[in-house]
Every structure is written in C-alpha cells, then in structure tokens.
Specification:
The complex is a heterodimer. Chain A is α/β, with parallel strands linked by helices. Chain A has helices at residues 15-26, 56-60, 64-77, 139-149, 164-175, 189-199, 203-218, 268-272, 313-330, 337-360, 367-370, 385-395, 400-407, 420-431, 435-438, 452-457, and strands at 9-11, 32-34, 82-84, 87-93, 96-101, 106-111, 115-117, 121-123, 136-138, 156-162, 179-185, 223-224, 228-233, 240-244, 249-253, 256-261, 263-265, 277-280, 285-288, 301-303, 376-378, 383-384, 450-451. Chain B contains ten helices and 24 strands. The structure holds flavin-adenine dinucleotide (FAD) (2 copies). Residues 13-19, 36-39, 43-46, 48-52, 174-175, 203-207, 226, 228, 262, 305-306, 308, 331, 333, 335-339, 341 of chain B line the site of one flavin-adenine dinucleotide. Chain A: Keywords: Oxidoreductase.
C-alpha cells in the first residue's frame, strides 16, 4: 500500500463513521475523522456534554450496550486517528473539503483522496397547519433535547406522525417521567399486520418495537392509529392538537408536540462531491448511488450509513465497516474478504426488514392532496402550499429547482433540508407527476450557513 | 427520419433572456417563430445572474441599446405580466481612491449625451447618504434610475409571454444539428423534432460558438463563471445596488432582506455547470465586510455561479452573419447581458424582419473577429 497516498477522511462519527474509522485503524491506517457534533456517537448514540451524568441505561435504554460499545470503540481510537469534533464540512471541491471549526469559527482546507461519507439523517417533516408554533418539535429534535440536554419539550406532550421513532421517543419520554398525552400514528393497524412477515426477519428489533407499544399501553398512554393530523392550535404556543380518526374530528390539549415521518438522508455532501443520484422508491427520495460495498459513482468516495439511505443504526455499523474494507481493497490492501461478504449479506437481508418497516409505517401518500392552501411549507421564507400550487399551474414549473427559483421555497437558512420533502410532494400532486419525476433540489455550498467573517479568516493573503 | 418539419418564419436557438425576448418581439411584429431551448427557458445565465439592471459603466457603444432596454424595463408588467421585482432603486458605483473617482467623473462627462443622470457623491455627502458604507469608499457615482430585478422571475417570464403571444417554445429540446440548403435552415432536436425556417437566430449564450463556427464564423468565445453568494435576510438598510470602480465586488439587498453578492470567478464542473469556488467565496467575504461593515456578523446561506459567454473585448456579437444569409447572431454578452437583453431581443427581431436595426449595433458585428477583418500583420 502506498501509505503516503492513503489519508482517508471519514465525515461523520455516528455508528457508520466510528466503525469505518475502527476498521481503517485495524489495518494500520490513520484516518481523519470529522464530525459536526462535539462528541462522537452520531444521532442515535448522541452523547450528552461530558459534565452530564445520566447513566447509559437511562439515556439509551435497550440500545445502551451498543451505545457503550460504539462510544468505547471510539474512545480507544482517539490516539490512532486525527479526530476533529465540532467541525462541519461545508463545501467540497477538487480533492479538498472545507471544514468549519465551530468554537473558533475558523475554516480549514482538508485534502482527501479517499473519503467515507457517513453524514447520517435528519427528520422527514410533513407540515400541518400550526407546525410553526413554539412547542412543536420534530421527533428527533424532541429526542435530542432529552438525550443531549436532559430536558423535555413540554409537560404534556403529544407524539404524532409515523415511523419507528414515534413509539420509541414516546417511550423514552414516558420513561423519563413526562406525561405523554397521546401517540397519534398515521399508519393503520392493518399496515402493521401486513408488514409482519417482513418484520419477522429481524425478530429482536420487532419485539423491541412491540415492547415499546405494549409498555406505553400498560402505562395508560393513549395510542391512536390511522389518524389524519389536521392542525395544531394555539396563539403564542401550542395549546392543543386536532386530528381526524376516520369518523370524526378530535381535539386534545397539550403543551408540546413531537412529530415526524421517519427520516431523510443528509445527502448534500455526496451531491457536492459529484455523486450520481437515483430515485429510491422505498425511501421515496433521490439518493446517491453506491454498490453493495458502498462505493459511490465518484472514484475514491464511499457512502455508509443513513446518509446514503435509511437503514438504521445496526446497518450503519456494518456499512461503515464494509465501506472501509472496500476503500482498503481499492488501495491494494488485502482485507478479510470473508468478513466483507458477511457484511454485504447482512445488509442485503436487512433490506427485507426495511421493506416491512415502510409497510408498517407507510408514508402518508395523500398528505399533499390534503394540505390546505394556507399551510406554510417553507418556514424560512414563509411559502405556502397554495403559493406552490399556483406557481406550478401558472408557470408550468414541473421540476423542483424551477419551483424553488420562482417561489423561494428552500431558499432560506435550511436550504430545503426541512421543507424539501414537502415541497416535492406538493409539486408532484399539483402537476400530476410522481415525486420521482419532480426531481430533487440540487445541493449548493455551504451545506449549512457559514459566518462571513469566518471565511474571511482563510481568504487568500489574509491568514496564509 | 420521418418527422414532418415544423415550418416557421424564424427559428431561435436558445431560450435565455435574449432568445425569449426576440421570440416575443417577433410575435408582436406578427411573425411566426419557433424557439428551441435545450433545458428550461431562463435556467442558464439569464436566470442565475446577479440581477443588476444598470446602464452606468457600460461602454458608450452599448448605451443606445441600454437606453432602449431601459424603456422596456419600465414597461415590464404590461409586456410580460410581472414586474419581476424590478426596481429603479439606484445603482451606486463606488470609488476607493481619488483616481477611481476621477474615472467616474470622466465617464459621466463621456456619457453626457445619453441622459443617464449620473450624480457624483463624495465627502460628507457620501456619508450622509450612505452611513452604512465602510471606510474604504471616498466617493461614488449614482445613477438613480438604474436598479435591480430578480432574474429567476424575469427571464422565464419573457419566454412565457412569448408563448402566450403565439411563439412555439420547445423546452428540453437541444438543437443537435443545423443544416442550411441555401434557402432554409433545418434544425433537428432528437428524433422527434425538426424545424425549418429561412431565418435562424443564434442566441445560445456561452454555447453559441459552434453554430457560428459551422457557418465559417469562428469567434474567440469562451465561458466564464461569475461567482455569487447570498446572505440570510438582514434588517433592510440599503436600496442601492452597489458596484465598485475597477470591479471586484457588487452587492444589493433584496426586499426580503438578503444581500446578494457577486465578484470573482467560480469554477466549471463541466461544459454546462459551474459553482462559486472557495477562493471566490473567501475573497467576496473579505470585500463584502470592507464595503459594508454591517455584514460582519451575517452568514452566507447559499452560493452559485453560471456559465456565460465572453469575448475578448467584452462586447457581444450582435448582428447579421457575414457568411450566411438568414443567420443572425446575438451572443457573448460578457457578463452584462441581462439589462440589455430585452432590447437585444427587439433588435434581433428587427434584423429578422428588416435586415437592419433601428438601434446602432455596428460595434458588435461578428466581422471584427473574422480573418478578412484582421488588420495588416
Ligand atoms: C434525531 C435522530 C434521532 C434518532 N434516534 C434513533 C433512535 O433512538 N433509535 C434508532 O434506532 N435510530 C434512531 N435514529 C436513526 C439513527 O440515528 C441512525 O440509524 C444511525 O444513527 C445512523 O448512523 P449513521 O452513522 O449513518 O449516522 P448518524 O448517527 O446520524 O451520524 C452522522 C454524523 O455525521 C455528522 N455530520 C453530518 N453531516 C456532516 C457534515 N457536513 N460535516 C461534519 N459532520 C457531519 C453528524 O453530526 C453526525 O454526528 C435517529 C435519527 C435521528 C436523525
Ligand atoms: C452569475 C452571473 C451574473 C451576472 N450578472 C449580471 C448582471 O448583474 N447584470 C447583467 O446585465 N448581466 C449579468 N450577467 C450576464 C447575463 O446574465 C447574460 O449576459 C445574459 O443572461 C445572457 O443571456 P443569453 O440569453 O445570451 O444567454 P443564456 O441565458 O445563457 O441563454 C442561452 C440559452 O441557450 C441554450 N442553449 C445552448 N445550446 C443550445 C442548443 N444546442 N440547443 C438549444 N438550446 C441551447 C442554453 O440552455 C441557454 O438557456 C451575469 C451572468 C452570470 C452567469
């Protein structure tokens, strides 16, 4: 191996990134690990600040052992890697990453020849009227508050939407002593039943999910399925939520809401790197293409974990390891190919389970048709569903980037990371196309807003 | 191939602001027109530019066109059904030295015949008028009637207006091949579309060079990529669109509050796509804070670039082909075609109908690049 050439960079220190780094180290390679978060662990195994002392069991529940495993793996690696926490990759260009170090607000160029992108996911948001009221959080956000800050989003909380995280977060809140006023699932019981065969391919995971539901029930938490969320009520903050149960409208008082519809991959970095994308019907989104081992369409770039498609935390660990093995192989290192085959096999099998999950918690296909015209879709720019529909009709815009240009949807601080999913659904519905056909918002640097004076620091001739 | 060609009076290649306004102008003259756009109308330079609608600072040779365009911009809502966020908010060109200020004064004198209404501000007047300006500015020249618009709205709207007026517009239809039999041009796009016309307008922007070359008029057209960036919305403080004598940076604040900044060069990803490069972003930010200290704590939320055709003398090619009857060129606007675009469209339509333009365009003849024109060695 030409060691001088091989200085792999791993972006993301979640389960995927940690296992990737560990594997590289095991083969004698010293990677750079860049992560926006102050501590490694990623979303699921997010670690509280070091002065917080809540036991892992409380923080991660059933996942405690795995969380500790990922954390301790990472902690033992720190001398064998170049770890850059608090560091956001905000741009990528010709073999260099631009990295913003949060606390010092400085930016650096980080060269790479091989790169593992393990950027994870964020919540998939489908707004309802009132979602911009204070007190409304995403499910992930609600969980982060609990895990990272050790606080709850409210005293009397409703969880709403669908996906495995729905029951998990409700469970975690209830366990932490918060009054969970209700769990409102847009999926129907029949969805869950028909998904059983596929879900049974991962019995342990299935039973965990069933346990959460049973536990919530036993605690007297109200669980509704097959609901259609209508709106959030409140003047200056959340006071109640209104939904339809198929027969009638129901209203429930609460002071906070956690909502979301599973997750969406963080793909901007892959996009800036020039990776090819393709539509994935299972995830209902355009994702960077990769082969079975995680090789992207761009030489030297590898994709692992939820950032390339939502597969969950266990799969993220496997994919991280596998991507590292592929990277090593591609650079002439003889790796344990039997292990690589096992990992590929596990990932393939999980695909079946993933199909089951999509079935059990289906994306609410008719969300767009039911979204009222005055619903704010893009909260940065205050763009409503009606405005999007009108523009599509009057301008002939049939593609997401054109709709963005004409309406400013996705042009605010979030750059479409939050509103992009909903905007695509509205456009597809308004133009009678599939979400595949309306395309995806093209990635544009910076991946997240960057302070002007920070770029300043690295301008040619200023700090050189 | 068996598709039946569409017959028309004028075929247009390229649906930027130039091609689309030519199509609209031709329809208003009652001529049949078919426009082929490879992507979406107004999705290239014309839809991604900075949005400066300024006459100030243009070469004198462009001022007749710019004046004509100025009148069209005033009529925008009537003409294309939207104001495109066009505002005569003022364009202020900043001098950072006495020499720069002298250059601006000289330009004011030279352009006197054109009624631009330029006003030089310096000293204490400068600071009462623009307290937000950083210390580097010593003065500047204000053109109160120049301004800004939203290119993402304006350029596609020209195409839509042309279509409403009866132009046949084919988007996502690249012109793959052009032939000429001495009378008629035949344009082919894929297997499904053929267009025949006695006249062809070449306004394919940065990509217009091949067609010109095919008809014996190779020109030194090259692609460049102005770098752009935008901040998050900030409290509104500045109505003027700013430029700087000698170049480097330009900047405007939109009604929403965001500052749009441009300057320096982006990087090409391929022949069609470009981005703001990191060096350009870094340089922009330094200059932006110097120019407008209020930006010190702002964030950039987005950057982009585009692909624009430049000629060495930074003047467009606009006029009749010297080799091929019926062929008309309008390309290579060298970073400044948005403001004059609507007038260029009218001029192209006049050329198609009358063979000449009522606005002087001699300076832009393609002849200047043709071998016969080259002076003694
Ligand atoms: C908010 C949230 C909560 C979740 N909770 C659970 C749960 O309780 N149980 C469960 O089974 N699954 C949960 N999931 C799903 C779970 O997070 C994933 O399956 C798993 O974490 C995927 O691992 P990963 O390594 O691919 O990505 P992640 O764990 O998401 O790690 C990605 C890392 O990359 C970093 N990163 C991203 N972009 C950049 C960038 N441009 N520059 C630098 N760093 C970057 C992030 O800061 C993060 O640390 C949750 C997901 C989210 C979004
Ligand atoms: C980032 C940037 C900032 C700028 N800022 C300003 C400014 O502030 N003020 C100003 O006045 N000017 C500005 N300009 C310049 C201005 O945008 C251009 O001069 C103007 O838009 C050119 O218009 P056009 O119609 O010639 O070209 P374009 O808008 O590029 O249109 C050409 C069209 O031809 C199409 N085409 C190409 N080949 C084919 C083919 N084979 N078949 C079919 N179609 C084809 C392309 O897809 C394209 O849509 C800027 C340019 C850029 C890139």
């Amino acid at each position: 191996m030409k060691k001088s050439l091989l200085q792999p960079v791993v972006v993301g220190a979640g389960p995927a990134g940690v296992r990737a780094a560990q594997t590289l180290v095991a083969y004698g390679v010293r990677p750079v690990v860049v992560d926006e978060a102050p501590r490694a662990g990623g979303q699921i195994y997010r670690r509280p600040p070091s002065n917080f002392k809540r036991p892992a069991q409380t923080l991660y529940g059933f996942e405690a052992a795995r969380a500790l495993a990922v954390h301790s793996t990472f902690d033992t690696l720190t001398n064998q890697i170049d770890y850059r926490p608090d560091s956001l990759v905000w741009n990528a260009q010709s073999g260099l990453l631009d990295v913003l170090h949060g606390p010092t607000q400085t930016t650096q160029r980080l060269p790479y020849q091989q790169l593992i992108v393990a950027t994870g996911a964020t919540d998939r948001v489908l707004p309802i009227p009132g979602w911009t009221l204070p007190g409304v959080y995403t499910l992930g956000g609600a969980q982060v508050a609990l895990k990272f800050q050790g606080c709850a989003i409210g005293r009397q909380v409703v969880f709403m939407g669908t996906g495995p995280l729905l029951y998990l977060v409700a469970y975690q809140y209830a366990k932490a002593g918060v009054n969970v006023a209700a769990v409102l699932d847009t999926a129907r019981l029949s969805d869950q039943l028909s998904a059983m065969p596929a879900l049974l391919t991962q019995p342990a995971v299935l039973f965990k999910g069933m346990y959460y539901v049973a536990w919530l029930r036993a605690q007297g938490v109200v669980l509704h399925s097959g609901v259609r969320p209508l709106h959030v009520l409140g003047q200056t903050r959340v006071q109640a939520v209104v939904w339809h149960d198929g027969e009638k409208e129901l209203t429930l008082a609460c002071d906070a809401i956690g909502f979301g519809y599973a997750l969406r991959s963080e793909t901007q970095l892959a996009d800036l790197l020039g990776c090819q994308f393709a539509f994935d019907p299972l995830q209902r989104s355009h994702l960077p293409e990769r082969d079975g081992a995680g090789r992207a369409s761009v030489a030297g770039v590898y994709l692992a974990g939820d950032g390339a498609g939502i597969m969950g935390a266990d799969a993220a660990e496997w994919a991280g390891e596998l991507a590292a093995l592929a990277l090593l192989t591609d650079n002439g290192v003889a790796v344990d190919s039997a292990r690589a085959r096992v990992l590929e096999q596990k990932l393939r099998q999980l695909r079946r389970f993933r199909t089951g999950l999509e079935r059990a918690f289906p994306f609410p296909q008719n969300w767009a048709a039911q979204a009222p015209d005055d619903l704010v879709v893009c909260r940065c720019e205050n763009i409503t569903a009606g405005e999007l529909r009108r523009t599509a009709q009057t301008s002939g815009a049939d593609e997401l980037n054109r709709l963005k240009a004409l309406t400013r949807v996705g042009m605010g601080r979030c750059q479409g990371r939050i509103c992009g999913v909903a905007a695509a659904e509205i456009l597809a519905q308004a133009t009678g196309q599939s979400v595949e056909q309306v395309g995806r918002l093209r990635g544009q640097a910076p991946i997240k807003p960057i302070p002007i004076h920070l770029v300043h620091a690295s301008a040619p001739g200023v700090n050189a | 191939m068996t598709v039946k060609p569409i017959q028309t009076d004028v075929a247009i290649m390229g649906g930027g602001i130039v091609g689309s306004s030519a199509a609209l102008a031709l329809r208003r003259m009652g001529m049949q027109v078919v426009l082929l756009e490879r992507d979406l109308c107004g999705s290239r330079s014309s839809g991604v530019n900075y949005g400066g609608v300024r006459r100030q600072g243009r070469p004198l040779s462009q001022l007749p066109l710019a004046q004509r365009a100025h009148r069209i911009w005033a009529e925008l809502p009537r003409l294309i059904g939207t104001d495109g966020e066009y505002q005569r908010s003022g364009h202020f060109k900043i001098a950072r030295s006495d020499a720069d200020l002298a250059a601006l004064e000289q330009y004011r004198t030279q352009s006197q015949d054109f009624d631009l209404g330029l006003e030089i501000l310096s000293g204490s007047r400068l600071h009462t008028h623009c307290p937000w300006l950083g210390g580097k500015a010593v003065g500047g020249s204000l053109c109160a009637e120049d301004g800004q618009a939203n290119p993402r709205l304006v350029s596609p709207a020209f195409a839509l207006a042309a279509q409403r007026a009866g132009a046949q517009i084919f988007e996502r239809s690249p012109v793959d091949e052009v032939t000429h039999d001495g009378q008629l041009f035949t344009l082919r796009s894929g297997a499904a579309l053929q267009v025949q016309a006695p006249m062809l307008i070449n306004c394919a922007g940065a990509w217009a060079g091949d067609l010109a070359a095919q008809f014996g008029e190779a020109v030194p057209l090259c692609a460049r990529h102005p770098a752009m960036a935008v901040t998050e919305p900030l409290p509104f403080f500045m109505v003027w669109s700013l430029g700087v004598e000698g170049g480097g940076i330009y900047c405007r604040q939109v009604a929403r509050g965001n500052l749009v900044l441009g300057g320096g060069s982006g990087v090409a990803l391929d022949a069609d796509r470009a981005r703001s490069g990191r060096d350009a972003i870094a340089a922009l930010s330094v200059q932006a804070v110097e120019l407008l200290p209020a930006l010190r704590h702002a964030h950039f939320i987005r950057t982009w670039s585009g692909t624009e055709g430049y000629l060495p003398d930074r003047q467009p090619v606009l006029g009749l082909s010297q080799t091929t009857p019926g062929l008309i060129h309008g390309f290579g606007f060298s970073g400044a075609g948005f403001q004059i675009g609507p007038a260029v469209g009218e001029v192209l339509a006049e050329l198609a109908r009358d063979g000449r333009s009522s606005t002087p365009i001699e300076a832009f003849s393609i002849e200047r690049f043709l071998p016969a024109h080259a002076g003694p060695a």
